[in-house]
Write a structure and sequence with these properties.
By secondary structure, the chain is of the alpha/beta class. It is built from eleven helices and eleven strands. It folds into two domains: about 210 residues, inorganic pyrophosphatase (n-terminal core) (Alpha-Beta Complex), CATH 3.90.1640; about 130 residues, Diaminopimelate Epimerase, Chain A, domain 1. The chain has a six-stranded mixed β-sheet with strand order 6-7-8-9-11-10. The protein has a five-stranded parallel β-sheet with strand order 2-1-3-4-5. α1 packs across α3, α3 packs antiparallel against α4 and α4 runs parallel beside α6. The longest helix is centred in the last third of the chain and has 22 residues.
């Protein structure tokens, strides 16, 4: 974390609940910001918070500059879209950021960073820009939302709610790769067990198996077509220890595909046998020459530290950044240049 922690207070779940109570008593409307290219953790966590705030008698709405991908639509609550509409913040009294590691992750909403009064997040390498409730040891922001939800139950203000539990469970399942990633801890399983108990005892909604299928085991034909294109562009470097794939800005439209269809593309290079680091390099169609980098480590190589040189961040084994380059070839060369020393150093130590 940055030294800005000296300037911003770090809250806990109880303090967050106290804030919520003050807001609801004062009839304050709450706007919840998700990060660009929303994933299961930011969407699940934000909508769990929206449902909780509503259940307590308040009004809240979630928004983002990118709409929610189709496979996450089941998490939406009384909202047809996540998309931001111009000046909508003027209709709200309070703004919180959910699973947002830096103002840059707000995309075109970064201008609202100064109005954010609380960030709820779990990223170790982050840029603090408001008071925060942060736990870098948590597998997902969903874990922090669970503690807020559980505190309200402890205060006997609400009872167990399956719809909130599904959102939190989805958030955690998404960020742990269905509990496969190294960020999964004993506490993660304890929280999941508590959520599962509520979800499985509700006959009116999807069970945890159905949630896992939506998140990890269900792909549209277009998504499978995108995966084929990603695999065709798969390259190896650093003696097969670095795998990467690059998608140009024009490629999706050339094949009648959307950016959503290329979601999760980093999982393909990461899955190659023997690879230590997998990279997904994707050009921004609205800003050509700008490439989004997603990095995943299968070992102790700290990809967040490496990408911090480009203003990026995230976790030790999962991080992202944005770089500029003339084309995919140059973008890949830049990434190989910064990851090669770390890979070589890791191999020497082994």
């Amino acid at each position: 974390m940055t030294s800005k922690s000296d300037f911003f207070p770090n809250l806990d779940a109880s303090a967050v609940c106290n804030l919520m109570e003050q807001y609801i008593t004062a009839q304050k409307k709450l706007l919840l910001l998700c990060h660009v290219n929303p994933d299961g953790d930011t969407v699940g966590s934000a909508f769990a918070m929206q449902k909780l705030y509503t259940m307590l008698g308040g009004y809240a709405r979630c928004t983002c500059t990118s709409d929610v991908p189709g496979y996450l639509h089941f998490l939406l609550h009384q909202q047809d879209s996540l998309l931001y509409t111009p000046n909508m913040e003027n209709n709200f009294d309070v703004i919180w950021a959910i699973d947002v590691a830096s103002p840059m992750q707000l995309g075109q909403l970064s201008f609202l960073a100064n109005r954010v009064s609380l960030s709820i997040d779990h990223h170790e390498n982050c840029t603090l820009f408001s008071p925060y409730y942060l736990n870098a040891k948590a597998s997902a922001t969903g874990e922090l939302i669970f503690h807020i939800y559980n505190e309200w139950i402890r205060r006997k203000k609400i009872t167990s709610d399956p719809s909130i539990c599904r959102c939190i469970y989805a958030a955690i399942s998404a960020d742990t790769g269905s509990f496969q990633y190294s960020n999964t801890t004993p506490e993660t399983f304890q929280i999941a067990a508590s959520l599962l108990n509520t979800i499985q005892n509700d006959p009116n909604g999807e069970d945890t198996a159905a949630i896992a299928h939506r998140l990890h085991g269900c792909r549209t034909i277009k998504e499978l077509q995108a995966q084929k294109l990603i695999i065709e562009r798969l390259q190896l470097a650093c003696n097969g220890k670095l795998a990467y794939t690059c998608v140009s800005a024009s490629l999706p439209a050339e094949h009648d595909l959307s950016d959503f269809d290329f979601g999760g593309m980093v999982d393909i290079p990461r899955s190659v046998s023997g690879v230590l680091v997998g990279l997904a390099i994707k050009e921004n169609k609205s800003n050509k020459g700008t490439f989004k980098i997603s990095a995943r480590s299968n070992c102790d190589i700290d990809v967040a530290s490496i990408l911090s040189a480009f203003g990026g961040g995230g976790h030790k084994r999962a991080a992202g950044a944005t770089i500029t380059a003339e084309n995919c070839k140059e973008a890949a060369e830049k990434m190989i240049a910064v990851f090669m020393p770390a890979i070589e150093s890791y191999q020497k130590e082994k």
